[in-house]
Amino acid sequence: MHDTSSAAQALSRTLGYSFSDPSLLQSALVHTSYVNERPGRDLEPNERLEFLGDAVLGIVVAHRLYELRPESPEGELTVLRAWLVRQSTLARWGRQIALGPYLMLGRGESRGGGRDRPALLSRGFEALIGAIYLDGGLDAARSVLLPFIDRDIQEGFSPQRVVDAKSRLQQVTQARFETTPIYNLVDHSGPGHAPVFVVEVKAGPEISARGSGHSKRAAQQAAAHAALQQLNVKEGYEEPEDEFAPDEDDS
Fold first, then answer.
1. 37 in helix, strand or coil?
2. What does DSSP assign to residue 23?
3. Distance (Å, whole) CA 162 – CA 168
4. How does pLDDT run along the chain (251 residues), one tens digit per residue?
């Protein structure tokens, strides 16, 4: 982990944005695991900034798509927006700015590969956008985000290619069974900084599948993927990343 002044200088140069209040940048980099190992310190994890950044990302992406794709119907814009704000996209953007080394993680999280973990990178990127929004407003956040958004859009987009497992399962069950999948959380374990959720999905009269992940959303995607495999649906969606793969733990 770099010190705060070094992080401010390096990230500011990469993003083309200089913080008026560098403490906001520091707050965006603090992961829960770091706080948990330092009880009594006046530290707050970046979760609130992540929440704010998620909302800012949504409005900036939606506005940009509205500008760039005047002929696209609402459904296509919705799918493309989901593609741009999904975990793997935000993690990739985080890697592009070398965000991982600057994240303030607990020792265990750091040793476990957390600095390249898609969920931590995506959440850190959201927190960073939240910090920029608080520091410079919506225009500042938009100026930082547009190069990422525009580059991805220019590389090409196919609605069929970017539908996720959960969306694809809904399409299949509606077409085959005239119903929609039902998701239920069946288990929740693990420490607060690295929880494990298990979700069961029922799709149609006979299909029942389970998936696990470090977030409810990830567990739902894993369950949907398992259900699609049972339904012998192999194409038309993007498979979720393997959260528990040894070389790239997701969360």
1. coil
2. H
3. 10
4. 445 566 667 877 888 899 999 889 989 988 888 887 777 677 888 999 999 999 999 999 999 999 999 998 887 888 888 888 988 889 899 999 999 888 888 887 777 777 888 888 999 999 999 999 999 999 999 999 999 999 988 876 655 556 788 988 998 999 899 999 999 999 999 887 778 999 999 998 889 999 999 889 889 999 999 999 999 987 767 777 655 543 333 33
65: Cβ–Cβ under 8 A, 6 or more apart, which residues?
72, 77, 80, 81, 84, 153
In this structure, are residues 225 and 240 in contact, taking their beta carbons and an 8 Å threshold? yes
For residue 230, give the nearest of 197, 181, 187, 162 by alpha carbon. Answer: 181
Handedness of CA 190, 115, 210, 184 (dihedral sign): positive
Whether the CB-CB separation of 88 and 72 falls below 8 Å is answered with no
Catalytic annotation, residues: 54, 126
Question: What's the CA angle centered on 188, arms 186 and 192, to 5 degrees?
Answer: 165
Q: Is 112 exposed, middle or buried (0-12, 13-18, 19+ CB in 10 A)?
A: middle
